[in-house]
Amino acid sequence: MRTAKQSTTFVEATFNNEWGSGLDRKGTQNTKPEHWPGSNTLGVVLKKISKKVRKRKLSDNANRKQKQNNREQSRQRNIVQMLKELRTASDSDVSGCNPDSESSEEEK
User: Fold this and answer.
1) Where in the sequence does UniProt note compositional bias of the Polar residues kind (predicted)?
2) Does 16 fall in a domain?
3) In angstroms, rounded to a whole number, what is the distance separating the alpha carbons of residues 52 and 43?
4) What is the mean pLDDT of residues 79-103?
5) Average pLDDT for residues 3-13, to the nearest whole number?
6) How many CB atoms lie within 10 A of CB 38?
7) pTM, whole model, 2 decimals?
8) What DSSP character marks residue 31?
9) Using H for helix, E for strand and C for coil, what is the string for 53-96?
10) Cα angle 104, 105, 108; round to 5
């Protein structure tokens, strides 16, 4: 159902006029759908389900891409934070004091 084209017609090829085409397999294949004596209710239901499955498949792919983008953005934020911390640590090492520390101001 996931790989079925939108133009695919699903058919219950039995003599059942409600759920099927009302014809046997050969009769169904050799007769246009508008000339079938049956209403093919099962085929209509299967086509709707197939459409939903195709949509869900596309949305699942979109969700995966979104999750991947979110992870990449999160990693990027972590890298930015790490670089800020390294710069702060590097600056305090050069000056010999930690600018965030209370004791560094008291010593001056």
Assistant:
1) 91-101
2) yes
3) 14
4) 72
5) 80
6) 22
7) 0.47
8) S
9) HHHHHHHHHHHHHHHHHHHHHHHHHHHHHHHHHHHHHHHHHHHC
10) 95
Range of the domain at 56: 1-90
106 found inside a domain: no
DSSP code at position 36: -
Tokens of 64: 């995966």
What percent of the chain is modeled with pLDDT above 70?
A: 79
Distance CA(45)–CA(64), nearest Å, equals 29
Residue 107 lies in a domain: no
Residue type present at position 17:
N
Say if 102 falls within a structural domain: no
What's the gap between Cα 108 and its chain centre? 59
Number of domains in the chain: 1
